[in-house]
Amino acid sequence: MSLAARHLEEAGIPTVVVGSARDIVEQCAVPRFLFTDFPLGNPCGAPYDVPMQTAMLEMAFDLLENARYPRTTVQTPFRWPTDGWRANYMRVDESKRGELRAMGEARRARRAAAMRAAPPAAGSTPS
Amino acid sequence: MDSVNPEQRIFVSYIDKSREYYLAQGDGNPYRWAYHRDAPFTPLRKPLPEARIGLVTTASLLEGDADPEIDSIPKVVYAAPVEPPPQRLYTEHRSWDKEATHTNDLDSFAPINRLQEAAASGRICSLSTRFYGLPTEYSQSKTNEIDAPELLRLCREDRVDAAILVAL
Questions:
Q1: Nearest to B20 among A6, A42, A92 (CB)
Q2: CB-side exposure of B86: number of CA atoms within 13 Å?
Q3: Contact B142 A21 (CB under 8 A)
């Protein structure tokens, strides 16, 4: 998404990226970034919280109107009610290693089958 | 643990987390995330109350009520009408925190209704008649050389003045 924002911006269309993966977006470097410190999935506001969603959209508008320099990040003031998600998401610990290894093997097998069925075009990297 | 630990970085590093996660899955070649030292910048050319806004999402369209097979979803850029807004979009194939939250409310990740309200109130001139879907790709060259140019073409076709791009 950050790469697409850069492409639009280079072509003359101002953009604002709205998201919660701060390191990924900032490492890619985008013109304007509205960051909310939420678990991934609701970067535009908590589900069904219309006032929060309206306020966050207004902050995105404000960035479009008032950012003067590229790589401008603004953080919204909203907090997720708990913090356990920070450690839980993509957690890797000893109890999960067997399960994760099996997930990886299943994914690689699925990908290999898909590649046999439809080899990728030259120059592309399969995901 | 259900609190932050100020002895460590409080913001989650998804680059660190995904590297460790996929290493544990046996993928020995960590993903190299896009990195740039600088970013382009185009000032808004007209006041927002005169501007048409485009919305870009990484979610996918659903055909019918049934969830699709994850591998069957086309990895292509699409455009779809904002009116009527979709009842829901498909997000299960994207990486987000499925334990901590949900995506049952469209406006929590693709704020079509909130943008329509902004147009009705005069904060923006209009929401583009179509919203745009962009697949997330392992291949940065596919994003740069195929998907982003197609997104630009669609935005130009719809005369979008500024774009909001929401990453799930």
A1: A92
A2: 25
A3: no
Of B134, B28, B128, whose CA–CA distance to B82 is shortest? B128
Question: Which are the contacts of B59, defined by CB distance < 8 A and separation ≥ 6?
Answer: B89, B90, B91, B94, B103, B109, B110, B133, B168
CA angle A109, A110, A112 (to 5 degrees): 65
Check CB contact under 8 Å for B165 and A17.
Answer: yes
* Strand spans (E) along A1-127: 15-19, 32-35, 72-75
Where do we find the tokens 């799930």?
B168
Could you read off the pLDDT of A55-78 as tens digits, one per residue? 999 999 999 999 999 999 999 999
Residue A109 buriedness (CB in 10 A; 0-12 / 13-18 / 19+): exposed
Residues contacting residue B7 through CB under 8 Å, at least 6 positions apart: none
Closest CA relative to residue B81, chosen from B130, B36, B127: B130
Q: Are A46 and A81 in contact (CB under 8 A)?
A: no
Query: What is the per-residue pLDDT across B133-164, written as a single tens digit (0 to 9) for each?
Result: 999 888 899 999 999 999 999 999 999 999 99
* CA-based nearest distance A118→chain B, Å: 12
| Chain A neighbors of B168, CB-CB under 8 A | 40-41, 43
Tell me how far CA of residue B112 lies from CA of A54, A74, B79, B80, in angstroms.
11, 22, 13, 12
Q: What is the pTM of this model?
A: 0.92
Q: ipTM of the assembly?
A: 0.94
